[in-house]
TrEMBL record, chain A:
Biased composition regions of type Low complexity, renumbered to the chain: 161-174
Record domain RNA polymerase sigma factor 70 region 4 type: where: 106-157
Family: Belongs to the sigma-70 factor family. ECF subfamily.
Region Disordered, annotated ranges: 161-181
RNA polymerase sigma-70 region domain segment(s): 13-77
Organism: Actinoallomurus vinaceus
Cited InterPro entries: RNA_pol_sigma-70-like (IPR039425), RNA_pol_sigma-70_dom (IPR014284), RNA_pol_sigma70_r2 (IPR007627), RNA_pol_sigma70_r4_t2 (IPR013249), RNA_pol_sigma_r2 (IPR013325), RNA_pol_sigma_r3/r4-like (IPR013324), WH-like_DNA-bd_sf (IPR036388)
Family matches, as Gene3D superfamilies: 1.10.1740.10, Winged helix-like DNA-binding domain superfamily/Winged helix DNA-binding domain (1.10.10.10)
Designated name of the protein: DNA-directed RNA polymerase sigma-70 factor
Keywords: DNA-binding, Sigma factor, Transcription, Transcription regulation
Pfam families: Sigma70_r2 (PF04542), Sigma70_r4_2 (PF08281)
UniProtKB/TrEMBL annotation, chain B:
Membrane-crossing residue ranges in chain numbering: 50-71
Annotated InterPro entries: CU044_5270-like
Residue span of region Disordered: 9-45
Basic and acidic residues composition-biased segments: 22-31
Keyword Transmembrane helix: yes
Protein name in the entry: CU044_5270 family protein
UniProt organism field: Actinoallomurus vinaceus
Keywords: Membrane, Transmembrane, Transmembrane helix
Length: 181, 379
């Protein structure tokens, strides 16, 4: 591949997938480091442009995931997402108390109560639009394993939703407690 | 309860997961990625696929490199003594240009070099040390690829500590012969064991075949529409040597400002391409006009040889560590031959934490360089 071709392909890749990689990073580690990690993900993409498989998004999210896991402390990362989740589920305080808003904050509060692994399994599909097969590529397991995990995570989310809503601050503590295992 | 919790979760997707459009960030990200020196290195030698991987060297690398240097051809630029150097970078580069212009071209441009990359192991504390992954490449690039084979020999060198201090820390830690490190965001295992030489040879016949294929492909393309194959063909037919310097100038313009990646691009060009002496001289002169390049005076290369260091302003590593490194080219004091290059830690971050300022982050050590009429072989 000549230099200009390479540049063109990379720019197209960046323009197509930057928002999606960014969204993934925010959902995994919060806003503060999102630009940095997303930028780094595309640095790796440039370097390995020739190796990127057909499922580009799954590959890119896998790179971002590795960067997050290796460069950032898990507890700090989770704390950041908990803070984001508090903001997201607290949106109801902005005045709109329609049913869907309540439901929304309920499901986000339930998500906040789950483990980091469960959150990732669920949001790869529900927020980032990946099919279980692609999501399995991101986390590095088989599609079958992913489906089983997804099923379980989903059950836990349902249970968490049925439970009386915990104040956001408490759910953050719960989540952290789980993580320290 | 029959509601689909996944659908609910999907609907609850926070809008602020999506980035605000930011043209400045876009151009910064694209620029940072494409200015990366790494890929340039690979791109600079597309035909040379020695299948021993990227990384670098060294079993007690200082020792092995030193031995290799001593035992290598007569052309190895050796500089046993320090000499006070008060030449400016510009003066050094102009002097190097003059020397390069005088060197008569032979059948082959040969460069034999070890190239290593450091990793921090054993934590960032006092017990930790650096271990280097290293390869040696012996590249023979023909002046006339229609007549002579293009040959590269390569081998993996054993991994290990490089400095006396690191060897001591390694011994104290139990003299292990296997290390797990992080490389470009992925896990990598280094072993204290090298691999045998492998050769990669392209014959003129093979060159001719690919040339014929390219001609066919170019001829088959719709007329009036320039395509990649035709462009490549043109470079081949015009002679890769002349094209070499133009391509280099272009890459230099494309490299990020500040001198860092330009200096790296120049190093690759000056060590790895078989361009006529006049073009090498021109390349040195181009560098002399680069803002940001300065002379460091006398420095040591990674194998401990003394030379004149030229450096560009420090830049952060793009491997996720954010480690700030300065890039240096080392030239022999009297002959201005290239001794090597190195990235030296200014401030370590990420998985490099614990590397002290001055630690060699990665290096190449040139064992033999110059024109020769010999046929490709390695010691």
């Amino acid at each position: 591949m000549t230099d200009p071709d390479r540049g063109r392909r990379f720019t197209a890749l960046y323009d197509t997938f930057h928002p999606r990689v960014y969204a993934y990073v925010v959902s995994r580690a919060g806003h503060e480091i999102a630009d940095e990690v997303t930028g780094e993900t595309f640095l790796v993409a440039w370097r390995r442009l020739a190796e990127i498989p057909k499922h580009e998004l799954a590959w890119l999210l896998g790179v971002a995931r590795n960067i997050l896991r290796e460069q950032y402390r898990a507890d700090a990362r989770r704390k950041a997402v908990d803070a984001e989740l508090r903001i997201w589920s607290g949106d109801l305080r902005t005045g709109d108390v329609a049913d869907h808003v309540t439901e929304r904050s309920q499901v986000l509060a339930a998500l906040a109560a789950l483990s980091d692994d469960d959150r990732e399994i669920l949001t790869l599909v529900a927020w980032h639009g990946l099919a279980p097969r692609e999501a399995a590529r991101v986390v590095g397991c088989s599609t079958a394993t992913y489906s089983v995990r997804l099923h379980r995570a989903r059950r836990r989310l349902e249970r968490a939703m049925a439970a009386p809503p915990a104040p956001a601050a408490r759910s953050a503590v719960l989540t952290l407690g789980k993580e320290s295992r | 309860m029959t509601r689909d919790v996944m659908a609910l979760l999907g609907k609850a997707r926070p809008a602020d997961l999506d980035p605000a459009s930011d043209a400045e960030r876009r151009s910064r990200d694209l620029h940072n990625a494409m200015a990366q020196p790494f890929e340039k290195r690979r791109a600079a030698r597309p035909k040379r696929r020695v299948t021993i991987g990227l990384g670098v060297v060294a079993v007690g690398a200082a020792a092995s490199v030193a031995v290799a240097t001593v035992g290598h051809g007569t052309r190895a630029p050796s500089t046993p003594q320090a000499r006070p150097t008060d030449l400016s970078a510009r003066q050094v580069l102009l002097a190097a240009a003059e020397t390069a212009a005088k060197e008569p071209a032979g059948r082959y441009w040969r460069v034999d070099y070890a190239s290593g990359q450091g990793y921090r192991v054993g934590g960032s504390g006092a017990g930790g040390y650096q271990v280097y992954l290293a390869d040696e490449f012996d590249q023979w690039t023909p002046r006339d690829p229609k007549k002579d084979d293009d040959v590269t020999y390569g081998r993996r060198l054993p991994s290990g500590p490089l400095t006396a201090q690191d060897r001591e820390a390694w011994r104290k830690a139990g003299s292990q012969d296997r290390w797990n490190v992080t490389s470009n965001g992925g896990p990598l295992t280094l072993v204290r064991k090298g691999e045998p030489w492998a050769a990669d040879r392209t014959t003129p016949a093979e060159n001719a075949r690919s040339l014929a294929d390219m001609r066919k492909e170019c001829a088959a393309s719709p007329p009036g529409k320039p395509n990649k194959v035709c462009a490549k063909l043109k470079i081949f037919e015009n002679g890769s040597l002349a094209a070499g310097f133009e391509a280099f100038k272009q890459r230099l313009d494309q490299s990020g400002g500040g001198g860092f990646s330009q200096l790296m691009t120049a190093y690759d060009f000056l060590t790895r391409t078989a361009v006529p002496p006049a073009d090498r001289a021109k390349a040195f002169r181009l560098l002399a006009d680069l803002p940001g390049v300065r002379s460091l005076g006398t420095v040591k290369d990674a194998s401990g040889r003394l030379g004149i260091g030229l450096s560009a302003p420090a830049a952060p590593m793009r491997d996720g560590s954010g480690t700030l490194v300065s890039y240096q080219i080392v030239l022999a004091p009297k002959t201005f031959q290239i001794l090597g290059d190195q990235k030296v830690v200014v401030k370590a971050g990420g998985h490099d934490r614990g590397m002290r300022p001055g630690t060699v982050h990665s290096y190449t050590v040139v064992l033999d360089i110059g024109w020769t009429n010999a046929s490709p072989h390695h010691a």
